[in-house]
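Progress report, Aim 2. The chain analyzed during this reporting quarter is listed below.
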Amino acid sequence: MAHTPPPSAPPPESSKAFSPYVAPDREVAEFTAKAIVLGVLFGLIFGASTVYLGLRAGLTVSASIPIAVLAISVLKKLGGSTILENNIVQTIGSAGESVAGGVVFTIPALIFLVPDGPKYFNYTQITMLAFAGGILGVLMMVPLRRALIVREHGVLPYPEGTACAEVLVAGERGGKLAGLVFSGLGIGALWKSLTTIFNVFLAEVGYSAPRASAFPNATLNVDISPEYMGVGYVIGPRIAGTMFAGGVLSWLVLLPLLSLLGAAMPEPFAPIHPAFANNPATGRPFLISEMSPGQIWSAYIRYIGAGAVLAAGLITLARTLPTIVASAREGLKGFGAGSGAATLRTERDVPITVVLVGSLLLAVFLAVMPGLPTQGNVLVSVLIVVFGFFFATVSSRITGLIGSSSNPISGMTIATLIITCLIFVALGWTGDAYAPVAIAVGAIVCINAANAGNTSQDLKTGYIVGATPIYQQIGLAIGVVTSAFVIGWTVLKMHEAFGIGSAAVAAPQATLMATLIQGLLSQNLPWGLVLVGMFIAVTLELCGIHSLSFAVGSYLPIATTAPIFLGGVVRWIVERKTGVTQDSDISAGTLYSSGLIAGGSLAGLLFAMLVALQQRGIDVLSSLQSVGNVGPFLRDEHGLGPIFGATLFLALGVILARAGQKKLD
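Predicted structure tokens for the chain:
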């Protein structure tokens, strides 16, 4: 993504003469109490909304820019602020989003791994793993700041970081920018509340062909959620279309194909998934002809999608091998150079001794903390720190090139899990007992990589506007610690309300991680299906198509990828009408979409809390949902309900398109 540099940013060829917006010799209010408190508040809000989005869709988007916009607006209402205070707010606040993404991609896998997996799935353990991974990401970025942010200022653009600096420098426009975010947030929250809390109209529309038809079980569903449309607009038509293509392959090609073949099979089709090993009606394993579309997907197509994600993730990492080698080299140089005796305000980092001692203490913490899967295992604790440094460097450099939202965290986590499981197998550590240990390694490394990429963007923003690095690094640590407490609580509330792994909260990324770990450690992965998926990804790469987005789409429910695709279509329409390709992360449409994502996610979280209260005997939800009784025909799945829901979703697309055409000048 290309961005226009802020007024103070030099062209790349003059990066050595770069002067930040706030000169190094100026002392400006920066690490103030109001900036810290507001940053923590935004971290809690966006961390919780990211948990919701990640558990439902398996996707996250960067929150730095909307937080920066909101910081400018809110602090103006509180009596004004400096550009460096606004920067501290977005720095602290964005930590919550990145840590939450790493958590929901991995830690819920504990539920699926072994019978005693839920023993580790409690508030204390989730919070401690989030804390460890987040702090590790911050620590590892301290020696990398000089190597990647400063010395390669004209080489690595760090798209979100540069765009965020543009927003901060143009802070006088904060009111209008914030108005777009707040408008999207209000519409997103209202829409989601009407579909869930008040139950006025359907939350999902679609169609599955009958089992006995010529195109059996072909399925096209659309979850008409505002947050999904917002995600599609943010990631753009190309990525959204590629993801939807993966969904089309799984639900409109493979699903009817297996159904057609299964209709002629008198015996169960191996491998037999344990969940379908006994059909109560017949006393034998399910035949394909006896399965619903969702069951066929769970038993067979899910493994094909997992193989596609596995291969695509590894291919993505292999493609960046030169980047990986360069990053590791620069990272080691950074440790060797230390932070020096910097006297300029803009060169003060957390001392390198703090990084080294902190990393050592973190390894000790993981080895001795009661209840953690890593307790008592020194080798695993050392592996985590080593993998953490390696993937922090990789994540930082990749996000410097393509941005945080495109950072292949899944691929890094898959690579970590494969290496960890192979080491375990070589040591004879096989079986269910070591599955929670493996996911703990993957979880901490994943959170570390996600936060390292986010930290890089924040430090880039700080470098451009003239922030004090040590204040940003301390702020990031504060953001990690405070958001970890609400992230663990939110994950558990979602599990309590809906059950992670259910249709409502599928946790697709965590399910994928659990599938890989179980198969690798027990050495019974259905490799036939996995290899089919892997070679689908290889085929796409041979066609010149980057396969990761397609693979993720093939693994997700089509009800998720379809509305994301529609969001991408809305952006395509806006770009066609305006004649402007919205590569910038601060276009009107992306700001409005960020509001839709946050509003829809927060309303969804409120619904989850009401469901949890209902299960405890405090039934407020039924009274609220009685509002929907005024028009029951709007929820009739076989009548006007789908037509009404689809029409309203199209209306939401029109609203988003109109917002996207607004000018920010």
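Residues 1-16 have pLDDT under 50 and may be disordered. The radius of gyration is 24 Å. These observations will guide the mutagenesis work planned for the next reporting period.
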